[in-house]
Each structure stands twice: as C-alpha cells, then as structure tokens.
Amino acid sequence: MDLTSRQTIQYIKQKYGFQMRKGLGQNFLCDASALDAIITAAGLTAESGALEIGPGIGVLTARLAAAAKKTVAVEIDARLLDVLAETLDGYDNVKIVHADVMKTDLAALIAEELSECNSVSIAANLPYYITTPILTRLLEDTSLHVQNIVVMVQKEVAQRLCATPGSKAYGALSVLVAYHCIPEIVTVVPASSFLPPPKVDSAVVKLAMRAAPPVTPRDERLFFRTVRAAFGQRRKTLINALCGAGLFAGPKDELRSIVASLGFNETIRGETLGLSEFCALSDALSAHGIS
User: Fold this and answer.
1) Is 140 annotated as a binding residue?
2) Per UniProt, where does S-adenosyl-L-methionine bind (predicted)?
C-alpha cells in the first residue's frame, strides 16, 4: 500500500480506530519527495543498517527497509504495533521495538540488531515536543557509532542546528551540533505535507558525524558548561552571563582579566564565539581552577 496516500492513512485510522495524539506529536508524512531526501541523505546501501525513531505507521520505515540491509524502529505508542505489522508485512528485514527511545540503550540495541551491517545511520521524523532532548541524547552518547543522523524537525529548529556564530538562531544547541557533526539543511517540507498538518513548516537536516571534534578542550564537561552559561542570558555580555550563571564565582575583575588575555573585548557576547573561542575560554577557566 502507498503509505504516503492520505486515503491510506484514513483507511488505517478507520480500521484500527486510531486517533492521532497531539501529545506524541503524531503528524504523518504524505510527501514522497521528502522521503527521498531522507533516504539519500542517510547514505544507505545494501550493507547498511538503519535505526528509526518513531516509525508511526511505517511511512519512512518501509523506505528504509527497501534501501538498507536491516532496519530497527523504536516506537513508544503501543497502539501502532498492529498497524506496523500490517503496513510492513512483506519486509523481513525490519524489527519493531516497543520502547521509549529516551529510556532505551541504543548502543546495545545497535550492537544486538545491526552488528552485521557495515555502517549505521539514524533516521527520524521527530515530534516537535521532544526534538531537542532526543537530539541532545544522540549527540552526547559517545557509545553510538553511527555515520549519519538524518531528522525531520521544525524548520526553526533546523535553522538552530545549522546556525553559525553571530546569527540570531545560534545557541548552545548549535555549538553541540558543530562539535559532533557537520550539519546541513537538506530540504524544507511544508506543513501541507503532513496529516494532520502542523502549524509550521519542517525541514530535513543531515548531521554527518565527525570522526573527532574539531577542538579538544582540556575539560569537555566544563566546555559545555561554559557554552550553556554563555547562552543562558543572551542579552548580557559574556562576563555577566558567566557570573550570572554561577560558573565564575570569583571577582569579576579576575574574569575580565581572563577574557582580555584571550584577546576578547570585555563587552563581547557569547553568541559571537565559535568552537575554538569557547574551547580557549573553557581552557582558561580550567587553568584557574574552575571545573
């Protein structure tokens, strides 16, 4: 069956008495070209593995299964298990796991189910309400050895993921992404491409995972604490933001001295700093005993 067909989706809803839950961000994709963009960006081959988060009725899952050696999909909604059994009937290379992705050991799942694949990519049409927590978890989990993470997210979030220093969308999430990946907006997907249509447009983002971060801070934990503190109060100067967040508890003049030693103006704001500047700053703070 054509899972991008609105008629098919209505048929499934009626057959299973399925009502979409706004709380789970259930908006089903009806755009084949968006699926093509995701599959291409994921870089799948006949020897690749795919891990999908939130398969829904299996629209993307079926395309992943057709392109990859094996696909594992993690679905939290028990109501969709019978639906997926029907829509994915005929694909013997798909496994559906009923679980909450935020509580699942994804590295263990990949090792157990996709160990025979020569590479693994993650793909997902992420619910808006939990996009940032899921992405943060995926990026911070160093035990996940994946090639690409390709996600459909709210367009505004996509812009944040790919934002550069000094831009309005640039923030702590942008730094986290740049540290671990090379991000790229692949395509914009209008709200009309979903059933029911959300209130905003979406975008497909490819996060090509780096073999290693482009900077090597002395204390990675302090590096990200510094980043979060710098963006915690965007309208404040870097010095005031770090002090206001409690990251630097010493005399403000001492922090001014540290900032000046790095060649930064004391009125500089965190939103203008790139990876190398944040690394230099956190290293300087580490040298002064901050951890």
Assistant:
1) no
2) 27, 29, 54, 75, 100, 125
pTM given for the model: 0.93
Could you list the beta-strand ranges (E) of the chain. 28-29, 48-53, 70-75, 94-98, 119-125, 148-154, 181-189, 194-195, 202-209
125 is in an annotated binding site: yes
Torsion of CA 211, 184, 115, 46, to 10 degrees: -120
Question: Is 289 annotated as a binding-site member?
Answer: no
DSSP state of 281: H
CA-nearest of 127, 113, 177, 120 to 147 is 120
Is 148 annotated in a binding site? The answer is no
Residue with tokens 């109501």: 79
Assess contact for 147 and 105: CB atoms under 8 A. Answer: no
- Dihedral, CA of residue 165, residue 167, residue 169 and residue 174, to nearest 10: -10
Return d(Cα 39, Cα 66) in angstroms, integer: 10
CA distance 109 to 113: 6
Phi, psi of 69 (to 5 degrees): -70, -45
pLDDT tens digits, one per residue of 144-196: 999 999 999 999 999 999 999 999 999 999 999 999 999 999 999 999 999 88
CA distance 100 to 113: 17
Give residue 268's pLDDT band: very low, low, confident or very high (50, 70, 90): very high
244 annotated to a ligand binding site: no
138 carries a ligand binding annotation:
no
